[in-house]
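Issue 218. Parser rejects a valid record. Input:
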Amino acid sequence: EVRLVESGGGLVRPGESLRLSCVTSGFPFSIYTMNWVRQGPGKGLEWVSGINGDDGISWYADSVKGRFIISRDNARNTLYLEMNGLKPDDAAVYFCVNSALQFGRGTQVTVAS
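Output the parser choked on:
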């Protein structure tokens, strides 16, 4: 059974940071490209960042470039997203997604003063 379980969301003030985690099982994590996507209130899904399984090359949406850092630990089958300088527009449910388009259930990030 494929599982992707996100955690680390919460309520923060603008400018603060959060680190999201996604623990996976049931598929060969180390060879899968992994992504973070988000869905803000009343909005559609927005791709945030992705990272290759083999070489660790990563890429980012313009909206988060320079503020967010994606990483992975293939030994722990875990994906991370470090989010710095959070803005109200970053508020969303964040999902990890593998390259087979299998999603976790998401973790809520709220940014408010």
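Fixed in the parser; the record now loads. The mean pLDDT is 97.
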